Amino acid sequence: MVVLVTGSSGQLGQSLQFIAGNYPDVHFVFRSSSELDITNKANCEAVFSEINPDYCINAAAYTAVDKAESEPEKAYLINVIGTKNLAEACQKYSAILLHISTDFVFDGNKTTPYTESDIPNPTGVYGQTKWDGEKAIQAVFENYFIVRTSWVYSQFGANFMKTMLRLASERDSLSVVDDQIGTPTHAVDLAEALVSIIKTTVLNPKNDNYGIYNFSNEGQCSWFDFAQKIFEINKIAIAVTPIPTTSYPTPAQRPKFSVLDKSKIKNAFGIAIRNWEESLIKTT
Ligand code: NDP
Fold first, then answer.
1. From the alpha carbon of 13, which atom of ligand 1 is closest?
2. Which 8-state DSSP code applies to residue 8?
């Protein structure tokens, strides 16, 4: 079984490379942005023709949430046109697409966890382009898994955990927002969940599980809680002050609440999900 991974230098891409050795029956082929530019349709076709994958995990994306507000065309090109190119290549080469989307497709006005059937209403360019990317896949074919996730961090790449650890080495105190509630997701746990989806699908060729799924770690917290736990686990003594979002304005508006309900993915694929604090301990 051949699994092509796009955007292999990103957090999720590197996490998939990290676990690939645990799955000797899966032949992973990793392609970074310099080896496969998903916005280039001819490039996508050439790579699919060469590799002929059974599955494609799209770990490539434009993920700069605030910068997207000032360069919407670039975000659209990667998150919508690039995603569409991959869906079309998957359709042409009979591959199944696993695509990653985001909690930022929601406006955050709910107070209970978002299910897959809740209607998106993005508050910023990044979330809008990710939702448009989902719709672009759905317009091409049905053989897709769209996995919405949230607050991704890992030992790889740039993320909130690494930013907190860097800032703690530079400052004596920090202020972190405490009125945005969500769930951190360890990218390695997400990578394992994606492989579980593939393994279940391989065993059930008459697949009727295609569609949208939520995946994050279990539990919920604020960014302030997340920061405090990062420092506690790493035994870093630093004063952390909770502040409201209004005291930390950013170009993109973020959902106040974006906890995801994971019942569907757990039931469909038998995935056991760790609590976010437990996964954080394992990362550091
Ligand atoms: P990263 O930003 O770490 O990685 C994205 C990767 O995409 C980078 O390696 C980048 O390469 C690559 N890329 C960008 N443009 C192209 C292109 N045109 N062709 C091919 N590759 C390209 O993202 P994450 O691993 O954190 O995110 C994985 C997925 O999870 C994304 O779909 C994201 O939207 C989603 N997600 C992420 C969250 C988070 O908190 N990070 C939260 C919720 C969802 P290069 O570095 O060379 O530009």
1. 25
2. T
Q: Active-site residue 126, yes or no?
A: yes
Percent of the chain residues topping a pLDDT of 70: 99
The model carries a pTM of 0.97
User: Is residue 284 very low, low, confident or very high in pLDDT (cuts 50, 70, 90)?
Assistant: low
In terms of C-beta density within 10 A (0-12 exposed, 13-18 middle, 19 or more buried), how is residue 36 classed?
Answer: buried
Euclidean distance between CA atoms 197 and 21, whole angstroms = 17
* Span 123-170, pLDDT tens digits: 999 999 999 999 999 999 999 999 999 999 999 999 999 999 999 999
Calculate the dihedral angle through the C-alpha atoms of 105, 250, 113, 191, rounding to the nearest 10 degrees.
70
Superfamily in which the 2-159+183-218+258-274 domain is placed by CATH: NAD(P)-binding Rossmann-like Domain (3.40.50.720)
- Rounded to the nearest angstrom, the distance between the alpha carbon of 59 and the centre of ligand 1 is 6
- Cβ 4 under 6 angstroms from ligand 1: no
Interatomic CA distance for residues 148 and 239, integer angstroms: 33
Protein residue with its CA nearest to atom 11 in ligand 1: 33
Q: What is the pLDDT of residues 79-96, one digit of tens each?
A: 999 999 999 999 999 999
Q: Does ligand 1 have an atom closer than 6 angstroms to the CB of 9?
A: yes
Q: Which of 12, 126, 131, 160 gets mutated to test ligand 1 (max ligand atoms within 8 A of its CB)?
A: 12
State whether the beta carbon of 10 lies less than 6 angstroms from ligand 1: yes
For residue 126, the ligand 1 atom closest to its alpha carbon is: 34
